[in-house]
């Protein structure tokens, strides 16, 4: 069943008025004309995410590590040399980054002293992951064809740029976004 098939749902509105920031700013600048358009978009994203999940699991099995660990390994490979820098790049807390780094060190994929560094075995894992990722992306571009793949790349860059500017706007203000709660 899709979101459209589920019928209308009530949206809880916060009792206080909060000026929009971040993603809400993007939404007010480029409102979706109809709620059904937004719901169709969410359905499409969820459908792709649902089909991507087995691909992600397959990548994890092929490389022998979970995606969060691969992100930490990549962050260290990209020169992040503190817990805070690793955590910031992957979007987690320093404590979670510390646990992931300890696990990677135990597997011999990273060295933690005198500074964070990816070992030869870690570099080999990253190379495997890169190769597998390229193969998955090749399948996706094969499904789309060259013109649609180029259009998808442009659209994803547009979305990323919008989200980056929304994040920058949200970090420069102290206002918080209201939390919308969907009720059945």
What do these coordinates show?
- The protein has 184 residues and is mainly α.
- It has helices at 3-6, 23-29, 35-63, 67-77, 83-90, 94-106, 120-144, 146-171, and strands spanning 10-12, 110-111, 117-118, 181-183.
- The chain has a two-stranded antiparallel sheet. A two-stranded antiparallel sheet has the order 2-3.
- Strand 2 (110-111) and strand 3 form a beta hairpin.
- The longest helix has 29 residues, at 35-63.
- The radius of gyration is 20 Å and the shape is globular.
Give the tags.
two-stranded antiparallel ribbon, about 65% helix, mainly alpha, disordered C terminus, about 180 residues
Output the radius of gyration. Answer: 20 Å
**Spatial ordering of strands, largest sheet:** 1-4
Give the CA-based shape. Answer: globular
> Secondary-structure element sequence?
HEHHHHHEEHHE
- Unreliable segments of 5+ consecutive residues: 1-14, 176-184
Number of beta strands: 4
Count up the helices: 8
For the largest beta-sheet, the strand count, sense and barrel status come to:
2 strands, antiparallel
Strand content: 5-15%
> What is the mean predicted local confidence, pLDDT?
78
C-alpha termini separation:
15 Å
Percent of residues in helices: 55-70%
Based on secondary structure, the structural category is mainly alpha
């Amino acid at each position: 069943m899709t979101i459209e098939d589920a019928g209308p749902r009530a949206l809880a509105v916060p009792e206080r008025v909060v000026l929009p920031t971040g993603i809400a700013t993007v939404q007010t600048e480029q409102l979706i004309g109809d709620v059904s358009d937004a719901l169709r978009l969410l359905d499409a994203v969820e459908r792709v995410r649902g089909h991507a999940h087995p691909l992600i699991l397959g990548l994890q099995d092929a490389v022998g590590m979970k995606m969060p660990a691969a992100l930490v390994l990549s962050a260290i490979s990209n020169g992040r040399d503190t817990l805070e820098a690793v955590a910031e790049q992957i979007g987690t807390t320093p404590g979670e980054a510390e646990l992931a780094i300890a696990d990677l060190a135990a597997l011999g994929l990273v060295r933690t002293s005198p500074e964070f560094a990816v070992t030869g075995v870690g570099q080999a894992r990253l190379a495997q992951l890169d190769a597998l990722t390229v193969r998955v992306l090749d399948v996706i571009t094969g499904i789309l064809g060259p013109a649609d793949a180029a259009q998808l790349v442009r659209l994803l860059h547009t979305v990323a740029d919008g989200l980056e500017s929304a994040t920058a706007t949200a970090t420069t203000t102290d206002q918080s976004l209201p939390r919308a709660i969907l009720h059945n």
